[in-house]
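User: Here's a chain of 87 residues. Predict its fold as tokens.
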Amino acid sequence: MDVLSSLGGQAGEAPGPETPQCSRKGCRSAAVWQILWNNPKIHDEQRRKVWLACDEHRAWLENFLAQRLFWRSTVPLTGGDTEESAT
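Assistant: Prediction complete.
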């Protein structure tokens, strides 16, 4: 039995929202920003992870990452495409 198929998705594909959502815990607002970051202790210099942010939580998420020296840049979310899956 394929558990993922029984949940409505294809095998190897996690179900998710149709519209990109903010990565802030508890927020389900539409994302309009990509916050690019990496942890230099475990990621190489070119690797970028992506959190998505709504206008309300952009500064909070950037500050959270900047305090840990993880924040790299913030770019507008265009066309629903992200550089890498939001984590």
